[in-house]
Design brief:
Helix content: 40-55%
CATH superfamily of the largest domain: Type I PLP-dependent aspartate aminotransferase-like (Major domain)
Radius of gyration: 22 Å
CATH architecture of the largest domain: 3-Layer(aba) Sandwich
Number of strands: 12
Number of domains: 2
Bound molecules: pyridoxal-5'-phosphate
Strand order of the largest sheet: 2-8-7-6-5-3-4
CATH topology of the largest domain: Aspartate Aminotransferase, domain 2
Number of helices: 15
Shape: globular
Structural class: alpha/beta
Strand content: 5-15%
Distance between the termini: 52 Å
CATH class of the largest domain: Alpha Beta
């Protein structure tokens, strides 16, 4: 039997997620690189390495001895978790949510976005019948794969220097319609500010434009706010889409504990927004998972509204700022012209002219110097010509990266 052929057309052509492919390659090359004093330094995944807040560990330990904590939770989230999220949304963004109908717990935000996409798309193998989701380009590498395996089509929303990373959506729609795409096939628009991989954020006016565009065109607005708490200056503090009037009629927003609290392994996230969208997401989730371990919800609920949690984020951001700016200085010495990002912990840098593709440059960084980066092409067609570096590792390793780049002659020329 040809087992692969039993799988659906989309899954047959699906590759393992880029970050895990890079990780496997890194592991494969580790002995060889270590032998030449170039032990791999991972700058690929957006996974902060600091210890998670001590407060949350203590809370987790405390509740583990509660006998009622170990059985099934509700897919939606326990009341204490949902109420804690409502409180957080109020204190962080000044927005009121009904914890019963407008908030849903997630096993990490990636899962929630993937399941929502799956629910929006009517799967078909006929190209012209495919439902469309508009996605940022460059953008989080998972979006386009999630859409593809759901039988839909992801179309680029180009984020470029020329449009200041805030493209006019009406112009884009006109262009797509002229190219032959059917407007009624567009189910949703995904926005991601602060953006991975660019580290760019957007203005309030642009969020208003997104809400207005989606309202007029009857498109669901999916705001991925995974990086909303990673910023370096109060004036750049990211907003919620729900700070915009009318958003509640069309939008859902995704949040994660992963990035602000270095809790990537906990798989803890949530979605807030329009009660019908949240409810539909819940229907599917209730059939395919049975919620998050209650102990994680309990500890997470206490963390998210605690002084300790806020202080942790403040200090983590101060550390990111220091590390990133030092690393930017190092790159400048090597000829790169790169600005300090205002949000997020990624650097998006141009590839030197001697490399034909971003993958070629990443291969050279890894094979010659043990520096593990992600090719920009993984984030969309507009990512070609760039690589993404995640500045989440420790300061010493970052110094070592700059030193290796000097020694191995990785300069921008
Ligand atoms: C833009 C964006 N959204 C969502 C996620 C998923 O995060 P998690 O599933 O850990 O909540 C990531 C992770 O890197 C991301 O970069």
């Amino acid at each position: 039997m040809d087992i692969k052929k039993k799988f659906n057309n989309y899954v047959q052509s699906l590759e393992t997620y880029i970050m895990f492919r890079i990780k496997s390659r890194m592991i494969e090359l580790t002995p060889e690189l270590t032998a030449k004093n170039r032990k791999p330094i991972a700058m690929s995944m957006g996974a902060p390495i600091d210890m998670v807040p001590e407060f949350v560990i203590n809370k987790l330990k405390e509740c583990l001895s509660d006998p009622s904590i170990h059985n099934y939770s509700t897919p939606k989230g326990e009341t204490y978790f949902l109420e804690a999220i409502a409180k957080r949304m109020k204190t962080r963004f000044g927005v009121d949510f009904n914890p019963k109908t407008e908030i849903f717990s997630l096993i990490g935000s990636k899962e929630g976005i993937a399941n929502l996409i799956r629910e929006l798309i009517n799967p078909t193998v006929i190209e012209e019948d495919k439902d469309i989701i508009l996605i940022p380009d460059p953008g989080y590498a998972s979006y386009k794969e999630m859409i593809k395996v759901s039988g839909g089509r992801g179309l680029s929303v180009p984020l470029t220097e020329e449009n200041n990373y805030m493209p006019n959506l009406d112009e884009l729609l006109d262009k797509l319609v002229k190219e032959g795409y059917k407007k009624e096939k567009i189910k949703a628009l995904i926005i991601n500010y602060p953006n991975n991989p660019l580290g760019k954020t957007c203005t309030r006016e642009y969020l208003e434009h997104c809400v207005d565009f989606c309202t007029r065109n009857e498109i669901i607005l999916i705001s991925d706010n995974a990086y909303c708490d990673i910023y370096f200056d109060e004036k750049d503090k990211p907003l919620s889409i729900f700070n915009i009037e009318g958003a509640r009629d069309v939008a859902i927003e995704f949040y994660s504990f992963s990035k602000p609290y270095a809790m990537t392994g906990w798989r803890l996230g949530y979605a807030c927004g329009n009660s019908e969208i949240v409810g539909m997401l819940g229907k599917l989730k209730s059939t395919i998972d049975t919620g998050i371990f209650k102990a994680l919800q309990k500890a997470g609920a206490e963390l998210i509204n605690s002084k300790e949690g806020d202080e942790y984020i403040k200090q983590a951001n101060a550390k990111f700022k220091k590390k990133i700016s030092k690393f930017v200085d190092g790159l400048k010495e090597l000829g790169w012209s790169v600005d300090m990002p205002k949000t997020g912990f990624y650097l998006w840098i141009k590839i030197p002219s001697k490399y034909a593709t971003s993958k070629d440059f990443c291969d050279a960084l890894l094979e010659q110097s043990g520096i593990v980066a992600v090719p920009g092409s993984a984030f969309g067609a507009l990512g070609e010509g760039y690589i993404r570096l995640s500045i989440t590792t420790d300061e010493k390793s970052l110094e070592e990266v700059i030193e290796r780049m000097k020694q191995d002659n990785h300069r921008f020329e």
